[in-house]
Amino acid sequence: MDLAQVSDDAEAVSRVYARKHGIDRTEQWFVLKLQEELGELTQAYLMRTGQARGKGYSPQELDDNFGAEVADVVCQALLLARHHGVDLEDQIERKWMMWHPDRSVSAVGD
To answer: What CDD domains does UniProt report for this protein, alphabetically (predicted)?
Structure first.
């Protein structure tokens, strides 16, 4: 899966969804929507781990819902980055991949 292509596709889906539901995707909307999705992921996690009511869902349904919420968070993060002109591939390379065990780490970062 190509990160740039997923970002393009998520943008197309988000644009259609916003138009269909009359949503103005403002500067604030992108970060607030990510926060909403994180809340839904937290709820799905708590339900999946038995720390919240399962609402009658089967273990498979709880697993599926958790996975779907992870996907929502990832796609919303892609949309937020895209909207603000963040080059995610570059940032991931600089922030995360420098610590890859197959690479030499020349500087300590956080």
So the answer is: NTP-PPase_u1
